[in-house]
Q: What sequence folds into this?
């Protein structure tokens, strides 16, 4: 596997993330340094933690004092959405082997969105076009090497941004008021990009409605500090219920019998049978005679042979159904 051609192939798809991660990472670095931490912690956290919202939250938690349980619970609530990301990529990551652990670690909001966009790109799903850096006959959208390159580039952008902000914060005095709102703004931008497609508008509307109901309930009867966890649980229940309701065939549904489908064929028309012969007289695999009335060419003879064989099978199925009803 050649690394540089692979990175050149993945880079154009990561440019939007580059434009967002570097300034956002720099904002995190500045916030971390102004909170009293060494600038080296910014790129180190970007390498080991690599969670934008989790890192922003961690600054306040670490500055407040040592509280492992509180840090664990709050981080769990903030990053609970990643459970949904993992569930939707189970089949995609199934055969990725040694690439799978890193892809799971690097599955951020923006990388997850890029994976979805790549999966919807027709040219990146074409396995017939050879591409440098990828095995022959493998589409980039299904290639662990290509997806790993996207995830690695995204993390590089984030680490570079953290380093820039961390060291710049020691040289320049910044007013960091409201800088922690950058993550909220990013989520709003991601949402707006998603709802550009009509298919995504209904889930977005449902999510917004459920979130408004949950935050109203938290303000009236509970504590708003539990809003994220409660909203995620409510969304999980709602979308799971909608998914089960959309299933076409539920367990226990009686499927139509083959004999019913055989009667009349498609559109109520019976298959054409040669005059003087019945479908039951023709067993599967019988070679039909060649004549102009039966269709010219081997393809027409094979098609008529299949038609008689299928109708014969239908009659046997009907006889079996009748025998079962009599017994």
A:
């Amino acid at each position: 596997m050649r690394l540089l051609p692979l990175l050149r192939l993945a880079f154009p798809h990561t440019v939007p993330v580059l434009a967002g991660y570097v300034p956002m990472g720099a904002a995190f670095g500045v916030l971390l340094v102004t909170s009293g931490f060494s600038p080296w912690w910014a790129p180190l956290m970007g390498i080991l933690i690599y969670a934008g919202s989790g890192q922003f939250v961690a600054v306040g938690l670490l500055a407040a004092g040592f509280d492992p349980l509180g840090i664990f619970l709050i981080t769990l609530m903030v990053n609970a959405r990643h459970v949904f990301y993992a569930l939707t990529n189970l089949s995609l990551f199934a055969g990725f082997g040694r690439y799978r652990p890193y892809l799971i670690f690097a599955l951020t909001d923006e990388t997850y969105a890029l994976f979805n966009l790549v999966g919807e790109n027709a040219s990146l799903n074409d396995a017939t076009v050879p591409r440098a850096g990828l095995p022959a006959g493998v589409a980039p959208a299904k290639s662990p090497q290509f997806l790993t390159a996207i995830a690695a580039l995204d993390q590089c952008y984030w680490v570079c941004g953290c380093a820039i902000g961390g060291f710049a914060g020691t040289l320049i005095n910044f007013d960091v008021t409201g800088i922690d709102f950058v993550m909220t703004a990013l989520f709003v931008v991601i949402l707006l990009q998603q709802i550009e497609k009509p298919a995504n508008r209904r889930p977005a509307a449902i999510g917004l409605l459920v979130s408004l109901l949950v935050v109203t309930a938290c303000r009236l009867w509970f504590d708003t500090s539990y809003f994220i966890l409660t909203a995620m649980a409510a969304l999980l229940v709602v979308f799971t219920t909608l998914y089960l309701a959309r299933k076409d065939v539920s367990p226990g549904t009686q499927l139509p019998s083959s004999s019913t489908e055989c009667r009349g064929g498609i559109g109520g028309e019976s298959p054409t049978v040669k005059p003087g012969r019945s479908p039951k007289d023709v067993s599967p695999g019988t070679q039909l005679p060649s004549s102009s009335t039966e269709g010219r060419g081997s393809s027409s003879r094979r098609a008529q042979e299949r038609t008689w064989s299928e109708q014969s099978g239908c009659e046997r199925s009907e006889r079996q159904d009748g025998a079962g009803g009599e017994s």
Q: What stands out?
A: The CA atoms of residues 78 and 91 lie 25 Å apart. Confidence is low (pLDDT under 50) at residues 255-276, 290-297, 323-327.
